[in-house]
């Protein structure tokens, strides 16, 4: 009977050890599951941040491309207007030269009569 009591005592000790190990494993499992949940939450936050950053970058990129296109169009328009301005300035100068020549011609005719046939040049 004594041997049965000893064997039972050993089995109880063994059972206590196994239960203790099982409880420790459950505790570790709970800790690990908690850590996994934290990491999944962080991952979800990072994904959200990443998606927001991606959308912002795509918006900025499309805006930059649109602005570059607008800039090119405006540069072309500027060059066209610049050439038109130069052309108009040339026309104005030519008109002034012609007007000056006409005025000088009229004045010279009057001066020739007044100066007795001598040509007098007047600059306007």
From TrEMBL:
Q: Name one GO cellular component term.
A: myosin filament
Task: Please report the name of this protein according to its UniProt entry.
Answer: Myosin tail domain-containing protein
A biological-process GO annotation: actomyosin structure organization
A molecular function (GO) held by this record is: actin filament binding
Its source organism is: Takifugu bimaculatus
Has the keyword Coiled coil been applied to this entry?
yes
Keywords for this entry?
Answer: Coiled coil
Question: Per the database entry, which stretches of residues form a coiled coil?
Answer: 1-98
On whether Coiled coil is a keyword of this UniProt record, the answer is yes
Highest taxon in the source lineage: Eukaryota
